[in-house]
Amino acid sequence: MRQKLWSWLWVVLGALYFVVPLYATADFSLRAQKGVLSLRAYENVFKDPKFAESFLFSLQMAVLTILVSLILIVPTAYWVQLRLPKLRRVMEFLTLFPFVVPAVVLAFGLIRIYSRPQLGGLLPPLLNTPALLVASYMVLALPYVYRATDTGLRAIDVHTLTEAAQSLGAGWATILFRVIFPNLRVALLSGAFLTFATVMGEFTLASLLVKPAFGPYMQLLASSKVYEPSAIAVISFSLTWACIGIIQLVGRRSPGQAQLAATK
Amino acid sequence: MAFLELTHIRKEFGGANKAVAVRDFNLQVQKGEFVSFLGTSGCGKTTTLRMIAGFETPTQGTITINGKDVTSVPPNKRNVGMVFQSYALFPHMSVSDNIAFGLKIARQSSSDMKQRVSEMLQLIGLEQMGSRYPHQLSGGQQQRVALARAIAIRPQVLLLDEPLSALDAKIRVSLREEIRGIQKRLNITTIYVTHDLEEALSLSDRVVVMNAGNIEQVGTPFEIYNFPATPFVASFVGTLNQLKATVRDAHTIVFEGQTLQVAEPIAQKPGEVVDIAIRPEMILLTHTGQGNALKARVTEITFLGAVVRVQLKAGQTVFDLDVFNNPNLKLPEVGSEATVSFAPEAVRVMGGVVSS
Questions:
Q1: Scanning A21, A263, B41, B79, which has its CA 20 to 30 A from the CA of A212?
Q2: How would residue B221 be classed by pLDDT, with cut points 50, 70 and 90?
Q3: Where are the domains of chain A?
Q4: Is this model's pTM higher than 0.90 or not?
Q5: Which fold has domain A47-252?
Q6: How far away is chain B from the Cα of A186, in angstroms, using its nearest Cα?
Q7: Is the pLDDT assigned to residue A258 strictly greater than 70?
């Protein structure tokens, strides 16, 4: 009984540590008008054309990052699992790099290399294009997408499913899109939403590469307004939570997942 | 000309310290024939099957199907159906979609596809289960779906890689009869890999017994069981007494100082030590005065249900004798001397000269 009390105490303390600042932020964001609780701060945020602009820009970047990452990483992880299992440790090590190399270093490296014309003048400097931002976000997203994919691939019998599909006449594209991708749905979604949340709030790269993204906008707002930054923090939190909620929901509904869990 | 032909197939794995998985494998399979590859794990049976499927490429040799050399044709262009031990159904597709997978790739019209799928569901007796997902089926049902999926594409050759190993004993027997029934009805040329003797003997037109990458013997189940060609086959096909004896002349051998008659002429020279095999059920507890008589001491008696196994010792050699159990059976005492008998036809002298 006593032990139980102690465990509850720790749970409550832990929960308070996370909940109190959130509650305070939410409460503060509702106090833009003196004496009453109102959504004034939220109205101000939504009214600002820069909000929509930067939000949409970051949204585009996130979607592009997710798409290109999936197209690049899923076939790679699949091939490593199927034919080059010895490379798996190397790949896992590589995916840790974005955690080791600070975003600032990455940004300066990119600026140094891509501020010049590329391929002997064939391409303009990539620095001014959103492509560079997508590419650098892909580096940031690598650990999430690669590890999510790898976990998903380990949960299914990649070898036998591939061979079964081959014996039924399927080529590599068919195997990837009709057999592998659908069975990785949950894993890929979780990787995608983590990437989404990361990109939507990313500040360092967007700021140093001077892009009109949501992260720098939030920072700008925070340094010039009082109640609005709290409102935007709440919005940002809700977005991330929504993402996690969707992962949970899709994971539970998807057919065949029960078997995946059972065969594991 | 044979429908499926494997000629001088050799398969090596690894680079510097390579391992030979299959050596000089030659086999001709007729259209509609059911051939089993039988052997312990690591004998090369699955590797050979995978070479027919196209998942492995032979280091040497050729594979032809229906007169066409397919040795270097990729697996998805061979039109070979494959059933795996682990079923390998696509978990995200319903039973019907699984069966239709190969047909979709072959770009069949949706009406043809529907008809073929319902034909297949009927064939495996799962008409009501088309919309279920693999995880909602039992193991036996899943394997039937896998069989239907492989057959749906009308493959030239059907390959089964230990398809019953993951199932429990009762379902194994009923499903293997079902597999044989379907194979006969559709007259599909079939290769079946198994380590289970009973499965191979009960299903096959011919059995290929493999050991350490080599073919030990190819023959009908009757031949394999009754006339094992090598000591390995003899030991593999059930409990068999394998004894050593010395050749005296073309029809006589000496075993533990006692002379025995052999029906078939012996190829080896007098004085050579040979392996002989005698089935336990061929030896009688009584001596009728005909055939070979052998004096031995009873060392152990074991009840095995329908059969009683008597262990005997002649000189330094231990061997078994099986008698059918019945209430009136009179068994000798353990430790007593007994004279057992068997026909000269029951003694089988193995082909190879024994080295030890």
A1: A21
A2: very high
A3: 47-252
A4: no
A5: MetI-like fold (1.10.3720)
A6: 12
A7: no
